[in-house]
Each structure stands twice: as structure tokens, then as C-alpha cells.
Design goal:
Helices cover 63% and strands 0% of the residues. It has helices spanning 3-21, 26-33, 37-43, 51-61, 87-99, 104-109, 113-124, 131-141, 148-157, 162-176.
Length: 177
Amino acid sequence: MSQSTSELRRLLDSLTVSARKNGLNDAAWASAAGFSKETLSRLRRRSSCDLSTLIALADATGASLSVTIEAEPATTPDGHFPRELSRDYERRLLELCSSRKLDLGEWAAAGPAFFMAGVAVMLASNADADRRGLLALAESLHPGATEVPVFARWLKRSPLRPSRFLPMLAMETKHAA
């Protein structure tokens, strides 16, 4: 079962519980949402649906939908590094780095400050990089990050390996051009 199917099924199961708590069977629930009972039945077999449909079903039960953005990534106990470097997270870092944007807010939101400062220092080593901009960004994220002993500590502890990441970034940048 795909993730979207299981997520939709889980959401519909929760809304069904809410409908039952409000004394609504499927026919009454679907009608209150502006649908036929058959539409609700078909929806339970699908892998996706429109957000407006889910909102209507939630409203009919008195429930509401919300989005929760999980703090990603989970950090090491000291808060300096992501606990793990998943392929998805690595892809997002590649996108950020290849964009060449130096927006402090974007970089701060992308991960722990010390980790992201180290990424900026690492990128500053590239010949075609905005060295001054990246080093200033690193210092804004974590004062002292550009000092050799501090960056050496980052290199030793970081789950991001420059020998892997920088060639991937070069390919990403090459394909983006």
C-alpha cells in the first residue's frame, strides 16, 4: 500500500470515528458533506482525493483538518547536528545549496544552526562559490563557525561527508544550468 493510500485511509478512519461520535451513519455523513453515500464509499477505495472533499467531510462531523510540520531533522542531544541524514534531507540540502540563495531564514530553517553553518563553510571552499557571502552566512548562523578548530570539529562530527556531498552538488548544479 502506498503512503498516500495509507495516509488517506488513516484520515478517513479518524473522520469516520468523529462522524459516529456525532451519531452520523455513512448516508447522513455524506449528505451533510454534500455527497452521496456512494461517493463516500468510492473515496474509501481511492489513494487520493481533493482537499476540499476532506474539508467538507471534516466540517460535517464538527472536526477540522490541520497540517503539522514536524521539526526536521531530529537533532543530536547537543542540538548541533541532525540525528540522521536521510536521502530526502540530503536532497533538500542539495536543492538549497545549488540554489545559491544565502537567505539566513531559509538556511536557519533547514537544520540545526551549527550544522548549517558548517555546510556554508564547506561550500565556501568551492572555487566558484560566493566565499564572502557563505562565510558571513556561517557566522550569522553560528558565531565562530569559520574558525579552523570549530570547522574541524564540524568535519569530525557531521553526518554530511564533504567527499560525497560536494560531487553530488557539482552534478546538481551542472544539471540545473
